Amino acid sequence: MIPVRLFSASSQTLLEGLAQWTPSAQASLRPCRLLPQQASPRMLSVGCVDHAKRQETPGKKPLSEKKLKRYFVDHRRVLVRGGNGGSGVSCFHSEPRKEFGGPDGGDGGNGGHVILRADQQVKSLSSVLSQYQGFSGEDGGRKNCFGRSGAMLFVRVPVGTLVKEGSEVVADLSQQGQEYIAALGGAGGKGNRFFLANDNRAPVTCTPGEPGQERILHLELKTVAHAGMVGFPNAGKSSLLRAISNAKPAVASYPFTTLKPHVGIVHYEGHQQVAVADIPGIIRGAHQDKGLGLSFLQVEDLKYELEKYEEGLSERPHVVVANKIDLPQARAHLPQLQDHLGQVIALSAVTGENLEQLLLHLQVLHRAYVEAELKRGSQPLRW
Ligand SMILES: Nc1nc2c(ncn2[C@@H]2O[C@H](COP(=O)(O)OP(=O)(O)OP(=O)(O)O)[C@@H](O)[C@H]2O)c(=O)[nH]1
Ligand SMILES: [Mg+2]
């Protein structure tokens, strides 16, 4: 499961489809303005990086949640083996009229490492295979020829990949281009020339190359979005993600439609992209792995669940979103809700009403985050 950094929640007792929206304290984009044409919020330039291939075409049946899940993978178990070292050889120089040419067996080349490299272009671990074998070094040759070393094998993983061995975290690839040697290549063997010494002028010893290192690693995608939505099942989180981005998470009128996080990209002017995650509905006792309870959460309950999951999570910058404002009963409850909670963005994912207020607010939160990150001297996450 991905620990998404931003959340939204909802309370159906207060207002149908209330959701809380928080921007990630881990990641953000440069500030930018929304595109000018805002006649309809759906006219905004929106897109999705990792789900682009499942855009619905007219006449085509939408993919089920089960099928959608296959496109996004946030953990992988990988067997990595470094390349084997090439063997050294044992042979002697041979030339006419030169009786004792001496040892001239070359060393074997080293095996290549298997290296994990964080790459911004990669958005999911779905392209990572279950095993990798590094390139082996070549054997040594006659005439002191050394074998060629095996090439490095680079495995591209998304930025934000945690590498675990057993339960220990061995690497955190949180920056573009960061690398981790997952498996070392074996050292090449020595040819008999290497063993030439004053007391042994004709060594016949040579050594084989060493096998590459073998490890089982668990890759986990830590950060997938700048903002996340947490809320009740059925609050309309997936509908909202569909409305503001090109992502197409499944939407249905029953709870727990969403089983895995989906990421949609909101495009702002100047090629700025904000990744928004839709995560499965949260319920009371969710931190104890409980299923759907009898009573739905209030906002305080939601904050409690977030705190239980990770301390300080509910204090992150956030905004409460009240969805389904197109429904008369929801609209009637709005003033009461605003009295209770202060700022609430009331919108409708279905009609598109007031979506731009949310998008502008998201941008403001991002701007603040980017500035804070740069001030701290760290690079904000970029999509
Ligand atoms: N009237 C109205 N219905 C909405 C709105 N947004 C969502 N719905 C409906 O609410 C139901 C649930 O929507 P989803 O987007 O699947 O809700 P969700 O929060 O993703 O639900 P889970 O994935 O189960 O947590 C669907 O039947 C939607 O059509 C809205 O703004 N207005
Ligand atoms: Mg959903």
Automatic annotation (TrEMBL):
A GO CC annotation given for this chain: mitochondrion
OBG-type G domain boundaries: 225-367
InterPro entries: G_OBG, GTP-bd, GTP1_OBG_dom, GTP1_OBG_dom_sf, OBG_GTPase, P-loop_NTPase
Domain of life, per lineage: Eukaryota
Domain Obg: 70-224
GTP-binding keyword on record: yes
MF terms (GO), sorted A to Z: GTP binding; GTPase activity
Protein keywords: GTP-binding, Nucleotide-binding
GO process terms (BP): ribosome biogenesis
PANTHER family: DEVELOPMENTALLY REGULATED GTP-BINDING PROTEIN-RELATED, MITOCHONDRIAL RIBOSOME-ASSOCIATED GTPASE 2
Assigned protein family: Belongs to the TRAFAC class OBG-HflX-like GTPase superfamily. OBG GTPase family.
Protein name in UniProt: Mitochondrial ribosome associated GTPase 2
Native organism: Spermophilus dauricus
Origin organism lineage: Eukaryota, Metazoa, Chordata, Craniata, Vertebrata
